Amino acid sequence: MEDAVRELVFQFFELLNLKPLEIRKGIYQVQIDDQLAKELDGWRAKGRLFQFTFDRKLAQTYGAELISPGSYRLDTLVRAIQKQAVLSAGYLPHDVFYEPAVRRKILDRLKIAHPESRFYVLDYQLRYGPYFWITLRISYLAYEKQEELRKLLVDLISGRVVNYHVPSDLLKPGFCDQKLQYRRRLSFKQAYQCLQQEIVRELKYQDPGWALAAAQNLAAERARLEEFFRDLPDSHERSLRIAELMERAKPRVQVRPLRAAVLHLPKFEYRIMQVDQVEKINRITYDPVSNQCDPG
Amino acid sequence: MLDPSQIIVPLLNYSGQSLTEKEEVFFEPYQLEHFSVEFSRSGFSSIIRELRKGNFDDLNWHRLAQLADQLSLTQGFSELLCVEHLAQHWQQVGVIPYPHQIKTVERVIKEMRGLAILADEVGLGKTIEAGMILKEYLLRGLVKRALILTPASLCWQWYQELAEKFQIYAGIQRSEWDWEHADILIASIDTAKMEPHAEIIRNINYDMVIVDEAHKLKNTATKAWQLVNSLEKKYCLMLTATPVQNNLKELYNLITLLKPGHLGSYRTFKQKFMQDLRTPKNPGQLRQLLSEVLIRNRRGEGTVKFTKRNVYPIIVELTPPERALYDQITELIRASSTLAPFKANILPLITLQREVCSSFYAAGITLQKIYEKHGMDPDGKIMAMMNDAVRIRQNSKCDIIEKLVSQIQDRVIIFTEYKASQEYIRYRLEKANFRTLAFDGSLSRGRKQWIRYLFQKEGGVLVSTESGGEGLNFQFCNHVINYDLPWNPMRLEQRIGRVHRLGQTKDVHIYNLVTKDTIEEHIMFLLHEKINMFQMILGELDAILMHLKWDKSFESQLMHIFLKHQSKEAVQRELEQLGDEILKAREEIRRQQWDLF
User: Fold this and answer.
1) What phi, psi does A183 have (nearest 5°)?
2) Which residues of chain B does A145 touch, with a Cβ-Cβ cutoff of 8 Å?
């Protein structure tokens, strides 16, 4: 956690072209301008020399601002950063993968599937498939609130939802050559609907323990309320109290997309000659991120 | 790469959240067997908006934002977020959360699920507990809209406490418009219960409602009770030091307001738990039920131990010229009180009478103002008095102060009510080679903090007016000199409260300068000897004065006594009666606390 906090802070300043100086061991200093100060501390704040540390003791001794998990300053930084990059675009270039190795892998797979045949690569093309990469916050709400972050990819051609690990460090910003892109067949709205269905499907098969416990509590509280209002004529008050109870205790899951990126991930498209008793030409597309071939 | 200038500066509203941040809208929920799933429409819309505009941000920001998303996740109630979040701020402003407060916050959030009556004894920090609970829910995103209902006199205090201690920037309700346009609003309960305000509030869904001085909601027939009952609120906190004032029905009403049905219907409650209106039946079972919704921390083990308060009245003898001027001004005040301009408004005379006990410089300024405003000086008396005031070279109180400060040899705070007296004290002390700092209401918050820092680091004498000291704490100092005595005991308590509060580690020494044979002596008699105010529990006096329900202010009560009687004995007699009334109220309050909590 502490490492993540450090990474966040230094990357934030780096992206703003600011270089914090270590003025004393563990204490850093950076000049922030009016706009950044306002973004962090509200409209009245002014630019200043911002001194910070990640060490509680140093913060106490030297009066530098403490940035640690849960601290006020970390919270303001996190909020400021979260407002950025609602939408981005990037692509993973083919040269991350070694083509001869990809070719070998495909040929090996084909040989295993058809031991009597021989296979030759006629030619190949490097293409890109469009994906919608969405970061979601899933909140499990009852009396308590638990949250998790999910990063899911929706294939904008097939509508398939996958949770591959996207090596984000290797992504290049922007769009790849348009001629190499497969055309997307799904709108972004349809992609979001696919995502919704997938999440609902996943949630159906998740352990519902938390919801069962919450539903039990809710039922007990509701029974108590119903008992209290049984002889009282005011149905408006009854419905008000039940609405409050539901708001407070009803188990539910809220899914909020926080940000998205339009990604283009590499595809290797091969034309392969299969020699058996007859000759046949196969078109095989290999997705190196999922390590899957189409047709499989 | 994103240029820093591209960062959008949000408009801040009361809660510090962006005004552009709209309420979240969800698609029609999917209903599963045990729970429902709601997908945010607004979250997706903001992405689509960017897509339509073709606004693609740098991927590096995307990566960083994902890391920020990860760090912002909430994981149950296992640990309080607000303690860590506010730790550094509390260190700066001198707030120390006590274990009983943290325990209370944890209980309210984990066990009571945000519905609780905080009924700590006075001085144990109910407001701090409520502030921490509110902050905790805000940080977790479970509360966005909150309403704080308090007596009108406490609105400003709540505002300051929330801002200074919790960095919660609430609004104070002033117009009808405010109800719907502030996320966190502090309002007078007496205003809120009146139309059209009540109608507006009823249509707002609050995530949290906090009611201060909740013992006022004891009667279901009152508008205040009905208002709070009609509000839709997810969480509710009620604060009172006296959950039971008269009878058990009031307690039932209060709990039913918070959690209907918790004590059953009134009929079953009566059968199960009431012998008569004032005597509980099955106290063990009732106590168990109450402990599920009510927390009462008491002084003593496990809560707070205050250090000792030592009070030293120092009698100051006036010099003959000072005495002569004092008598002249007192006589003038007595004679003027029946005149037309002062019959309706006695305040200028009260001020003058108080100032004359403080310093003749302060009194001289007021005399001049009265003279200029009313132009009443047919026999040239006021002019002569002003001249006399200027001619007086010796100030008996300041002579004593110089001696006292040199004896104490530590940080000292000198309180005075008047800026003119403050300047004179500083002049005298600087002349006697003491290092002084001035503190008054005209200083900006930043400057006040700076002076407080200097005083803490370098010591010396801090000469402060009351308004200067408001909202700032000086637990690092344990010597207070009251150069003059405020007539309102609450103000005196506030002065002492600057140093004698949670966090003070040493015994506190209070030196009260009292000029002999003046009104100050009477005040000292009432506060020190009669009601022993200096040894009262912190906050107790506040509760007593509220309980008394006087139609006049404390200062006006005193002034009328002084104007009514010529002789010292008669004044003393009336003050005795006033003191008895206060003591009786204290007894009543103490008697009302049954052993149920």
Assistant:
1) -75, 135
2) 74, 76, 140-142
b/e map B2-20, b = 16+ CB within 10 Å = eeeeebeebebbbbbbeee
Q: Which of A58, A254, A263, A264 to mutate to test the interface with B (most CBs of B within 10 A)?
A: A254
Question: Cβ–Cβ of B48/A224 closer than 8 Å?
Answer: no
Determine contact, residues B436/B458, Cβ cutoff 8 Å.
no
Interface of B with A in 53-82 (CB under 8 A): 55-77, 81
Three-state SS at A19 = coil
Which chain B residues are Cβ-neighbours of A252 within 8 angstroms? Answer: 29, 35-38
Complex-level ipTM: 0.91
Instruction: Indicate whether this model's pTM tops 0.90.
Output: no
Tell me how far apart the alpha carbons of residues B179 and B162 are, in angstroms, rounded to a whole number: 18
pLDDT of residue B437: 92
Q: pLDDT band for position B595 (50/70/90)?
A: low
Residue B508, CA distances (Å) to B96, B452, B533, B535 in order: 18, 18, 15, 12
A145-149, A192-196, B174-178, B343-347: lowest mean pLDDT where? B343-347
> How many residues in chain B?
597
Looking only at the bridges linking them, the beta strands covering B274-276 and A252-275 are unpaired
End-to-end, the C-alpha distance of chain A in Å comes to 40
If one compares B117 and B442, the residue with the highest pLDDT of the two is: B117
Rounded CA-CA distance B23/B41 in Å is: 11
Are B148 and B142 contacting, i.e. CB atoms less than 8 angstroms apart? no
- Kindly indicate the confidence band of residue A29, based on its pLDDT and cuts at 50, 70 and 90: very high
Q: How many helices (H) and strands (E) does chain A have?
A: 8, 12
Distance, CA of B280 to CA of B116 (rounded, Å): 21
Asked if B36 lies within 8 A of A84 by C-beta distance, the reply is no
How far apart CA B207 and CA B143 sit, in angstroms, is: 5
Enumerate helices (H) and strands (E) in chain B, giving the number of each: 27, 17
Bridge partners (DSSP) of residue B465 are B416
Residue B16 has pLDDT above 70, yes or no: no
Per-residue pLDDT tens digits for A39-75:
888 888 888 899 999 998 888 888 888 998 888 899 8
Question: Among residues B256, B173, B490, B404, which one has the least CA distance to residue A237?
Answer: B256
Residue with tokens 């004044």: B571
State the Cα–Cα distance between residues B421 and B343, nearest whole angstrom: 28
pLDDT value for B343: 58
Measured in degrees and rounded to the nearest 5, phi and psi for residue B115 equal: -120, 110
Cβ neighbours of A261 in B, within 8 Å: 59, 62
> How far is A211 from A251, CA to CA, in rounded Å?
5
Percent of chain B whose pLDDT exceeds 90: 26
Would you state the structure tokens that stand for residue B333, as one six-digit string? 């005040």
Residue A96 in this model has a pLDDT that exceeds 90: no
**CB contact residues (below 8 A), chain B span 256-275, against chain A:** 260-262, 264-265
Q: Average pLDDT in the A113-128 region?
A: 90
Q: In one letter, which amino acid is B506?
A: K
Answer with the residue of higher pLDDT: B15 or A243.
Answer: A243
Q: Tell me what the pLDDT averaged over chain B comes to.
A: 82
Inter-chain touch A248–B113, beta carbons under 8 Å: yes
State the DSSP code for B40. Answer: B
Per DSSP, the residues of A31-80 read EE-HHHHHHHH-TT---EEEEEES-HHHHHHH-PEE--TT-HHHHHHHHH
Q: Which residues pair with B171 in a beta bridge?
A: B185
Comparing CA positions, the residue from B536, B440, B522 lying closest to residue B485 is: B522
Interface of B with A in 128-167 (CB under 8 A): 139-142, 167
